[in-house]
Amino acid sequence: MLPEAIVRAVTELGYESPSPIQAAAIPKLLAGENVLGQAQTGTGKTGAFALPLLARLDPSQNDPQILVLAPTRELAIQVAEAFQAYARYMPAFHVLPLYGGQSYTNQLKSLKRGSQVIVGTPGRILDHLDRGTLKLDKLRAIVLDEADEMLRMGFIDDVQTIMDATPAGRQVAMFSATMPAPIRAIAQKHLKDAEEIKIASKTSTVERIKQSYVMLDGNQKLDALTRVLEGEEYDASIVFVRTKSATEEIAEKLGARGYAVACLNGDMNQAHRELTIRKMKANQLDIIVATDVAARGLDVERISLVVNYDIPYDSEAYVHRIGRTGRAGREGKAILFVSPRERRLLRTIEHATKQPIDKMSLPSGQIIEQRRIESFREQLAQTVETQNLSFFQDLINDWREKIEATDAELAAALLYLAQKDQPLNVASQFPEIREPHARGEREDRPRRERSDRPERGDRPDRGPRVKREMKGDYQTYRIEVGKEHGVRAGDIVGAIANEANIDSQFIGNIKLFDHFSTVELPAAIPNEIFQHLKKVYVRKQKLNITVDTGAAPSGDRRPSNGPGPRPGAAPRAPRKPRD
């Protein structure tokens, strides 16, 4: 049985009954058993482990008691937010997300302050373990969330190392959509006498929803949203964004455009939330702008359109979002805004839902103009049928003589005045939104952990890099970190991309030697960036970057294809793209 404080929190979040994975896993984890859960995204796995583990926390202990490993920083943030929402009525509760891209200084301060729950990506967790800044000696439970995704991203060795560093008596929960051999091996080693739970995938709700996406840049989103809301047929709509501040900002901008809209976020109390939902059910609101957590359990049959203004970082959140429509057997529609950098996320969602997401074109100015005209005509016809217009007819008869205008001229003038706040003639005001230029495949990847002072890479060294085409003048540089320091190509890419603000697609071929490495970078690196890179650390080793002269110290052999270019040498021939 969950404690009253947790029950109160999930009730306010709109939870009515547990999902199948929650119903199966929560009693086992409450009893202290190990659990191996296999379930597709969208089945409520976060609640399945967070709720029972929170119930087993010792509130008097401020050291880490629960560790959750997640494959991406975005998922780590989402899981940490879920823990915070579930524990809102638990006194002195602290959860800390740890991932690359954050300042180590801020993370160290938070670790010293103490947190009962740590949610992090494998690379950053391992960094803190190596530094001795994260202590797991009092850990009660460890969770591997999306274990198969961590395997796919090359983190499985880091996961093994972290698991080995946890106390022998801790509770273990592993959740994975699939069970490949390496994941099964971890389960056999660390999940002794585990209760295995397998939940069959259900796609019936998703199948009733027509899913589409629009490719655009971030600065085109508001215009695109306005076109969707004007040009699509729907009864009510929910617009999903990532942050609380975005709910307020987007709702305010839509309200200024005349929409009946309200926001829904985690800062709202239960009474305000219930009032907002009642207004939508009563046709007093047509649009709600919400975050994922705030919309959990939202069930309004009127919602026939879901707009993913911000693409979710994991498929489970996407399935929860679009599940707000297509209720009670009705048809629903879901539209996803995607930037070129997010195409990989789009493909992940398609794979998880087993449904293709079709590309769509935004409604044109002509379509929006026609819909406004039709809507106004319907209001006019309803007014003629239902209202007593005799007073206004007398006015028209009087004005016709005084103004010396025909009935058609008077009607046109009145129509002009009536539509001034929302003009009917708007086709020319909606220019075409051009699809942004598609970037290279490397930019499609969801961002993974990078650090402000990178010392551990986000990706494993997958062996020699396949040469890829580089545009412009490139120079080969030498950095003083090599195989003996445990460096990987991903470490170098992450450090340079983060510290020098050089997009990873402009980082060329990397070659690892025993005591140093070489990397191809644009020749025209500003001096201040070049000097800054000299001081950057990778694997606790300062880069000390210099122009490569082709010389190798004793013991370091260069490949047989010869040394890199010397200063002033012509750039190398174009290279084939990396897979």
Task: Provide the fold topology.
Blueprint lengths: L3 H9 L7 H11 L4 E4 L6 H11 L10 E4 L3 H14 L8 E4 L5 H10 L3 E4 L1 H10 L9 E5 L1 H6 L3 H9 L6 E6 L4 H10 L4 E4 L5 H4 L1 E7 L5 H11 L4 E5 L3 H13 L4 E4 L5 H12 L5 E4 L12 E6 L6 H8 L9 E7 L4 H11 L4 E2 L5 H22 L3 H14 L3 H12 L55 E6 L9 H11 L10 E3 L4 E6 L4 H8 L2 E2 L2 E2 L3 E2 L32
Helix pairs in contact: 2-3, 3-4, 6-8, 14-15
Subcellular location: Cytoplasm
Catalytic activity: ATP + H2O = ADP + phosphate + H(+)
Family: Belongs to the DEAD box helicase family. DeaD/CsdA subfamily.
Description:
Residues 432-472 have a biased composition (Basic and acidic residues). Residues 26-197 form the Helicase ATP-binding domain. Its EC number is 3.6.4.13. It is found in: Cytoplasm. There is one protein chain. The protein is α/β, with parallel strands linked by helices. The protein has four domains: 4-198, Rossmann fold (3-Layer(aba) Sandwich), CATH 3.40.50; 204-364, Rossmann fold, CATH 3.40.50.300; 366-429, no CATH class; 450-547, RRM (RNA recognition motif) domain (Alpha-Beta Plaits, 2-Layer Sandwich), CATH 3.30.70. The protein contains 20 helices and 20 strands. The protein has helices at 4-12, 20-30, 45-55, 73-86, 104-113, 122-131, 147-152, 156-164, 181-190, 204-207, 221-231, 244-256, 270-281, 315-322, 343-353, 365-386, 390-403, 407-418, 489-499, 527-534; strands spanning 35-38, 66-69, 95-98, 117-120, 141-145, 171-176, 195-198, 209-215, 236-240, 261-264, 287-290, 303-308, 332-338, 358-359, 474-479, 510-512, 517-522, 537-538, 541-542, 546-547. The strands form four sheets. Strands 3-4-2-5-6-1-7 form a seven-stranded parallel sheet, sandwiched between helices. Strands 10-11-9-12-13-8-14 form a seven-stranded parallel sheet, sandwiched between helices. Strands 16-17-15-20 form a four-stranded antiparallel sheet, with no helix packed on it. The protein is globular. It starts with a helix and ends in a 32-residue tail after the last strand. Residues 438-471 and 559-579 have low confidence and may be disordered.
